[in-house]
Amino acid sequence: MAHSKKAPGPLIEILELSKAYAGSGTQAVSDFNLSVPEGEFLVLIGPSGSGKTTTLNMVNRLVEPDGGEIRIQGRNVLESDPVMLRRSIGYVFQEAGLFPHMTVAENIAVTPNLLGWDQPRIRTRVHQLLDMVQLEEGAFANRLPLELSGGQRQRVALARALAARPPVLLLDEPFGALDPVTRESVAADVRRIHQRLGLTTLMVTHDMTEALLMADRIAVMRDGRLIQVGTPRELASSPADEFVTQLIENPRRRAHALAEMLNA
Amino acid sequence: MNDSVREAWRLLPDYLGQHVILSVSALLLGVAVSLPLGIAAARSRRFGTPLLAAVSVIQTIPGLALLALFYPLLLALSALTQDLFGVSIRALGFLPALLALTLYAMLPILRNVVTALDGLDPAILMAAKGVGMTPRQSLFKVELPLAAPLVLAGIRTATVWVVGITTLSTPIGQTSLGNYIFTGLQIENWVFVLFGCVAAAALALTLDLLLAVAGSGLAMRLRGRLIAAGLGVIAVIAAALAPELAHQRPAHQGIVIGAKNFGEQYILSQLMASRLHQAGFSVVEKSDLGSTIAFRALGAGDIDAYVDYSGTLWGNILGRTDMPGRQAMLDQLAAALQKDHGILSLGSLGFENAYIFAMRKERAEALHIKSLADLAAHPDLRIGGDFEIFSRPEWRAVASAYGLGAMKRRQYQPDFLYRAVMSGDADVVSAFSSDGRIARYDLVILEDPKSALPPYDAMLLVGPAHAHDAKFIAALKPLIGSISLTLMQQANLRVDRDQDKQTPATTAAWMDQRLPH
Q1: CB contact under 8 A, A93 and B123
Q2: In this complex, which of B124, B134, B146 lies closest to A83 when CB atoms are compared?
Q3: ipTM of the assembly?
Q4: Phi, psi for A118 (deg, rounded to 5)
């Protein structure tokens, strides 16, 4: 999966980022450095508690860093208004995080409303987005989240995240709650939309297969530290340590085991 | 009985109207106070935990006591504002009732607001923050809408409580559906009691039902249902208020005649009201006032006239224990009330309603008891009294004069005293000399050879506002000295008896024809 190289400068730059949660005593994230060029699909991967979600949440300041710097388009996010910052970054939560008392259309319109867009413009935008995530407006616009399937909910969450045309999209294990078939189709849509809109995307997952299939580059984390960053091919050919080897070999091993079992 | 039902229906618009105004005001105020407090409590444990504890403690205070406590509180506050700003607040009636009921309304609302906000899915709150809502936007666009069903359930609980407890505001001078219950209990008119209970229950259930409909409208996003419920609530309030507004204006500037909480007082207040009405005044009655509350209300201008008893005022208001004799007591009282409170005593109505002690005839004869002095020989006898007697100076005087301190005491609702003595539940009971039932039940009045009990002449008292109002005084003056003990006993019996019971209004009319104009 080659990505366009027309804008080589880093869109997101993370320098010496660190975070310790009060009372835990351990460092959730430390010495974290990463540059993400514009248009890249970067996947943060690691086991539970490795600090990947904390890192993602510091990008739009849902979690405040203890130290370090995060720059988006050259601007230090720690010096900008966190509310305005979050309105300018798309975020898809683990289990969609849709507002249960709002319809699909109302959920998608949340951020444009917060930004004070006029109603005709919002209606047009909602229409475009439902189309983009392949939900038929007539059937879905007025439904409540409870009336949707998991995949449909994740599509609405994606549309909501993209409503105000953010340059950056953050995804926190967006397919975790989906069945394998739905998962594949939503993942393909996310990747397609990323490409089409020229987004810069950070996605957190613990599933290496998903990471290998979707990422331009993969950042491996363990115990709050960044172990290695590289394209899937780079990680496979020169893993930094045994942990990365294990991680990257895992899908292949499973595929082999499966093949043997099915052929036997 | 038909008479009672008719009378009950006649009173309904006034009682219901005032009940609705008070209940709805207390609920609105309760919601207005509890919502922000609940939000603050949910945000901060250090504020929320003590707040909820305090509100829970308030809830354990019996309703009647809480309502009663606000009266002296407001009286003190009124004295303070009078000193500071020259403005006094009305310590009786609507205001203390409103404040007490608001406190009652708070607990269920507050608790549900806190529970609802605490129970919100953290992922949803994170999402609200993540899409770029400020804390305020998150509260109003996400948290409160999601908390609404539980908050509404709290408001429904508060509604049922408040509508019920509003009936207890009658003794502090706020008319409500409780007037049926208190009056009915005093004169053993069970039609009245039942009528009051049913009316209050119907009101509570109607409001609860409308709120339930509003809640389901909210939950199912049916705007029509929500609007229908809202219109229903407005309709109930409007229906209850319409007669109130129609006749409140003239009444508001009119005369308020007070009555304490027993039959004789109801009859006499109706009698005074009818005399003033005949003289062209616009009159309303405020009945079921507590004993000293009535006096304070007269001084404060909350009521304009009522009947009190010389011995009561002598002990409770002047704090005197000496016995100067019947006429001297009346004269000294009139002078003291005029001087200290600006209250005019028009004089005695002509009869005494004295505290006496009575026994069943056979029992007294069997034990050879004729006077209070004979009781000392029987320390095992049980004595029944109303709710005040044993804490009054009269009882202390009697107990020390005749050595009765060790007798076993029981307290009864005044009208049940006769039942108690007739059934043998009590051997001796306190009673009132003008009560027609003493003669009817053939009770023996125990003599008071040491004159420990003071005289209790029924005095007609006029508040400061009308102390110099010649027309007002002229309308009531003919009643002075014209009501004999026999006439009052007969009138009281008409209201108190079990068969062919009459309402105070009918009895007052019956008396009116027998008295000089």
Answers
A1: yes
A2: B134
A3: 0.88
A4: -80, 160
Among residues B442, B447, B390, the alpha carbon closest in space to that of B421 is found at B442
Cβ distance B202 to B210 under 8 Å? Answer: no
Helix (H) and strand (E) counts for chain A?
11, 10
Helical residues (DSSP H) of B376-484, grouped into ranges:
393-402, 416-423, 436-440, 470-476
Say if the Cβ atoms of B133 and A99 lie within 8 Å: no
How is residue B169 written in tokens?
Answer: 């505001």
CA B340/CA B466 separation, integer angstroms: 16
Distance from CA of B127 to the nearest CA of A (A): 6
Q: B136 to each of A58, B128, B132, B219, B258, how far by Cα in Å?
A: 22, 11, 11, 23, 51
- Closest CA in chain A for residue B130: A86
Look at residue A7 and tell me whether its pLDDT is greater than 60: no
pTM of the entire predicted model: 0.73
Q: What b-and-e string marks burial along B254-268, b requiring 16 or more CB atoms within 10 Å of the CB? A: bbbbbbbbbbbbbbb
Comparing A35-44, A167-176, B64-73, which segment has the lowest mean pLDDT? B64-73
* B146 touching chain A per CB within 8 A: yes
Q: What is the mean pLDDT of residues A201-209?
A: 92
Total residues belonging to chain B = 517
What residue type is B374 in one-letter code?
A: D
Interchain pair B130, A91: CB under 8 A:
yes
Instruction: State how far the Cα of B55 lies from the Cα of B102, in Å rounded to an integer.
Output: 11
Do the chains contact at A114 and B133, CB–CB below 8 Å? yes
The Cα of A43 is separated from the nearest Cα of chain B by a number of Å equal to 20
Taking a C-beta distance cutoff of 8 angstroms, is the pair B162, B218 a contact? Answer: no
Question: What single DSSP character describes residue B434?
Answer: T
| A217-244 tens-digit pLDDT | 999 999 999 999 999 999 989 998 999 9
pLDDT tops 80 at residue A24: no
